[in-house]
Specification:
Blueprint (H helix, E strand, L loop, with lengths): L1 E8 H10 L1 E3 L16 H15 L9 E3 L17 E9 L5 E4 H8 L14 H8 L5 H10 L7 E5 L1 E3 L3 E8 L5
Antiparallel strand pairs: 1-4, 2-7, 3-6, 4-8, 5-6
Length: 178
Amino acid sequence: MAIYYTYQHAAAWEAAKKNGFLFGDPNYGMLKDEDDANHRPAYDWLAAQYEQRKKRLLNGNDPVWLSDTKPDVARGGFLEVGEPGVVLTVELPDEAVLALEAGYWVFALNRWFLSFEDREAKSEEELRTSWEKMFDREWCEAIVEAYPESNTKYYYIVDQIHLHQVLDIQTFIEQGVS
């Protein structure tokens, strides 16, 4: 068991209270507009990785994103300006949570080959397989040793958060990036 934090749109939290759990509802997700639609394949790949690695189904939903540090909502950039949100402090079982290195997630989002070799992927399969390194803490930490100017930051995902797993709720109104 570990403590995590997630920020959510207030309407997603209201829906969770009715359902008994919070899940990655696409209605409240970050990929609602067409500008972000090009990231959908990376999110679908990530959802498949979660299901495969954790043996838990997302049932067509997105995973819920988590952090091991409490988000500073005062700095903004979490929701649209003026929208109400919540930061949930949750305690989740280790077997439900999948860690991924944040900087390497960008490789999947942008369809970049995740390698420190100076070459391109030879196939779509090699490209997608390269992204799997973001889940390998040992590999990620070895890169930091090899390239001391780099560092690691991990995000976490889970299929759902039940109400009894919520330890604290902080409400906020998005003020914008400060």
